[in-house]
UniProtKB/TrEMBL annotation:
GO cellular component, one term: nucleus
Spans annotated as Disordered: 454-480
Keyword match Nucleus: yes
Organism: Caenorhabditis nigoni
Keyword tags: Metal-binding, Nucleus, Zinc, Zinc-finger
Protein name, per record: BED-type domain-containing protein
PANTHER family named in the record: ZINC FINGER BED DOMAIN-CONTAINING PROTEIN 39, ZINC FINGER BED DOMAIN-CONTAINING PROTEIN 4
Gene: Cnig_chr_III.g8750
Keyword rRNA-binding annotated: no
Any one GO molecular-function label of the UniProt entry: zinc ion binding
Length: 528
């Protein structure tokens, strides 16, 4: 008896029919059962699964399995006004415009419409008005809510802020950025961009604007430090946000570089000449062709001069470096330009001297601008730069000015408990860049945390956790014990929070308060 015979009826002529739907099958030769298999698989899926021995057969009240090929109506409805494909494409367009800072007129551009027509002919994009009133605000709300949820799960965050003005001087904005740890990785997000054109930028006004965003995202009690520039109004505003606040290292390095370059005679005239030459080449198509022709004749890749912009930290270094690189081509170009001043030999020497002096500062500024730079690196970077500048003997007057400026800022940084503890907790630096008193301070903080955890243990049950009060066998516990007599009178003869590897889970649970204490330092991995 075959496995299909239970579900088949035998006819008088020797053929068979289905017991469920009376489908007649021609008499099969050589015992071929493929026709039965295909029939049950297509029309009686539950019976087919039972025949095949599939224990996961669908019950009678379950809906039928979804067909692999959608119906025609489903295909057309996907691109209706509120169809899933239309909504997904419209959202992607809004993301593109906002993330790439593209003009809203893109949605009406013939080229963009042609692209959509070729790729998704059935899609009809919404108008610019709908994009402005509906799509972009909805997208903003979506990302704002996502950020709010991410910050809700973070125990410690840090913030930084700065302001800028557009070239027309009509619009002034303040950007507030939050730094936190997300999925064990450093993260940062723009918390708010505030238009501050309406009123004078007093510290009280700036603090009011930032507090509004901070309160909305619910992080007012989670902020561990605030980074800002050295302006008086910024300092005043940051005090209102967090007790721990300090100057941005990038700003300070830029100011130190300016203090040093101010002592080079002839640098101002050189920078002014390069600005005029750069502007002339950019504004005149004839001069631009002459410039490019010189590079072609010398069989060299065409390079343009870089413009020095006061507000960009490495702008002077990059402009002078490019001028040195195209020195030969620039001198040939100036020979035929009567309305442009020639650069003298002494000015070229000044250019090389400034580059040599600014090299360590330029490298440090790039390091500070990287998102991986942490607050724990501030003190070490300052000390390394000072050591490098003090070992060199050239241009001592200019270097002295930089050393004086950086030493002044380093003193401010080294007086901050936050930065010293952060440096100690960074495994790259440990105690190599901070005074010994901060090691004692860190141990005191850790002992206080341990004592608080012990006192909490005495007021609660162990819930089956093995008592480890007599265990001080691990090196860290012995180190804390030996150091306690020097920095604290807190006894360690009770149950220790830090025990051996066998009690690691117990240790992690009891050190929750300690982790909260240092969480603020960890949240500044990308602070600058």
């Amino acid at each position: 008896m075959g496995k299909y015979d239970l579900y088949l009826k035998k006819q008088s002529d020797g053929s068979k029919s289905c017991t469920f739907c009376d489908k007649n099958f021609n008499k099969q030769k050589d015992g071929n059962t493929n026709v039965y298999l295909n029939h049950f698989k297509k029309f009686h899926i539950k019976v087919f699964q039972k025949i095949q021995g599939n224990s996961l057969a669908r019950s009678e009240d379950e809906p039928p399995a979804k067909k692999s090929q959608p119906l025609i109506d489903e295909c057309f409805s996907e691109f209706s006004e509120n169809g899933p494909k239309s909504l997904a494409i419209q959202r992607a367009i809004a993301q593109l415009i906002s993330s790439a800072a593209l003009p809203l007129s893109l949605i009406e551009h013939p080229g963009f419409k042609n692209l959509l027509h070729l790729t998704v002919p059935r899609f009809r994009p919404k108008s610019r008005l709908q994009l402005t009133r509906n799509e972009l605000p909805a997208l903003y709300d979506e990302y704002r809510d996502k950020l709010k949820m991410s910050l809700a799960s973070s125990e410690d965050v840090s913030v930084s802020f700065d302001g800028w003005t557009d070239s027309s001087q009509k619009h002034e904005y303040l950007a507030l950025i939050v730094h936190f740890v997300e999925e064990n990785k450093p993260a940062y997000r723009i918390l708010e961009v505030v238009d501050v054109s309406a009123k004078s930028h007093t510290g009280e006004f700036l603090a009011e604007k930032m507090k509004s965003a901070i309160d909305f995202f619910g992080i007012s009690t989670k902020i561990r430090c605030c980074v800002r520039d050295g302006a008086a109004n910024a300092r005043s505003a940051s005090v209102e946000i967090c007790d721990v606040n300090f100057d941005c290292l990038g700003h300070k390095l830029n100011l130190a570089a300016k203090a040093g370059t101010a002592n080079f005679a002839g640098l101002d005239s050189l920078v002014l000449k390069l600005k005029k030459i750069t502007k002339k080449i950019r504004m005149s198509s004839n001069l631009r062709r002459e410039w490019e022709q010189i590079f072609e004749e010398m069989d060299a890749p065409t390079l343009v001069l870089k413009k020095h912009v006061e507000t960009r930290w490495t702008s002077l270094y990059e402009a002078l470096k490019r001028a040195i690189r195209v020195k030969e081509q620039l001198e040939l170009f100036l020979q035929d330009q009567d309305n442009l001043e020639f650069i003298t030999a002494s000015e070229w020497k000044t250019c090389e001297a400034v580059l040599d002096m600014l090299q360590p500062l330029n490298d440090s500024i790039k390091l500070v601008q990287a998102r991986s730079f942490s607050a724990s690196s501030i003190i070490p970077v300052c000390r390394v730069i000072l050591a490098d500048l003090q070992t060199k003997k050239k241009h001592m007057t200019a270097r002295t000015k930089i050393i004086e400026k950086l030493s002044e800022e380093l003193e401010k940084y080294t007086n901050l408990k936050y930065l010293n503890i952060a440096t100690l907790l960074d495994v790259r630096f440990k105690s190599g860049f901070v005074d010994s008193k901060w090691k004692d301070e860190l141990l005191t903080m850790m002992l206080a945390t341990i004592t608080a955890a012990e006192e909490g243990d005495s007021d609660s049950d162990n819930d089956g956790v093995t008592d480890v009060s007599q265990s001080h066998s691990d090196p860290f516990s012995r180190f804390l014990q030996s150091s306690s007599s020097k920095i604290s009178k807190v006894p360690l003869d009770k149950k220790s929070v830090l025990v051996g590897v066998s009690n690691k889970l117990y240790m992690m649970d009891k050190q929750k308060n300690y982790r909260n204490m240092i969480g603020g330092y960890r949240s500044t991995r990308t602070l600058m």
